[in-house]
Structure formats: structure tokens, C-alpha cells
Write a structure and sequence with these properties.
It contains 5 helices and no strands. The protein is an all-alpha fold.
Length: about 140
């Protein structure tokens, strides 16, 4: 089968690699391995920073092009911030002994990590659903 779009192939490979990483991190928790958990934490921080930077770039690009911010851009940025705040307030802020070895020793740090994990899971879920829906839509249009 020949792919008509290299973007779809790259997107599919990225989603598959992210799912493999998530499964590896999830299984390492039960085996008490530290490296996958640290990689997962740092990659979630990096993805969150990337998402915030992308939102800011889209803001400035839309602002320069149209002379004002569009409602869609404001909604997306507000949704991202709302997910972070919601994750912060939903996290209980408990400090467990396993968290200490990663340098998380205050309830505030625990809540911040919980907010990033919640937002990352939500963004991953949204990305997978969006990729599947976009692929189905492209398939139906052909």
C-alpha cells in the first residue's frame, strides 16, 4: 500500500512511539525502575513547554496577520490553561516515599507534577482522537 501523504505516516509513527513510551513507563512503575519514570517526567515537561510555546506563537502569528486575536486562538489557550489549573486542583498533593528520590518533597511540587501529568494525559488522548478522526475524514473524502 502506498501512502499518499508522508505527514500521515509520520504522525502515525509519532503516536505509536508515544504509546510505546507510555506503556514502558507504566510497566516500569510496577518493576520499580527509575529511568523510564524520569524520562517520562522530563518528556511531559518538554511537551507541555512545547505546547505553551506553540500556543504563544499561534497567538502572535494570528495577531500579526489579522490585527487581533481570533476567538478560536483565545479558546485554545484558555483551554490549555484550564487543563493545567484543573490538574493542579484535582491532585491531592500527597508526598509518598517514592516521590522523594525524584526531588518532589513538598505538596506544591507534588501538585505541579500532578497538573503536568494530568494535562499531558489529556493532550495525548486528544491528539490520538484527533489523529484518528483526521485519518477517517481523509479516508472518507477519497
Amino acid at each position: 500500500m502506498i501512502f499518499k501523504s508522508k505527514k500521515s505516516l509520520i504522525l502515525g509513527l509519532c503516536v505509536a512511539s508515544i504509546l510505546v513510551l507510555v506503556i514502558w513507563i507504566y510497566n516500569s512503575h510496577f518493576k520499580a525502575q527509575e529511568l523510564p519514570i524520569q524520562i517520562g517526567l522530563y518528556s511531559m515537561y518538554a511537551l507541555l513547554i512545547l505546547a505553551v510555546c506553540a500556543a504563544i506563537v499561534l497567538f502572535s502569528k494570528g495577531f500579526n496577520r489579522a490585527g487581533y486575536l481570533s476567538k478560536k486562538q483565545v479558546y485554545v489557550f484558555a483551554l490549555l490553561l484550564a487543563c493545567l489549573v484543573l490538574g493542579f486542583f484535582l491532585d491531592p498533593g500527597e508526598i509518598q516515599s517514592i516521590y522523594m528520590k525524584y526531588g518532589i518533597d513538598t505538596p506544591f511540587e507534588s501538585k505541579c507534577v500532578g497538573a503536568v501529568v494530568f494535562t499531558s494525559k489529556l493532550m495525548l488522548f486528544t491528539a490520538v482522537i484527533t489523529a484518528v478522526m483526521a485519518s477517517l475524514r481523509a479516508f472518507i473524502k477519497q
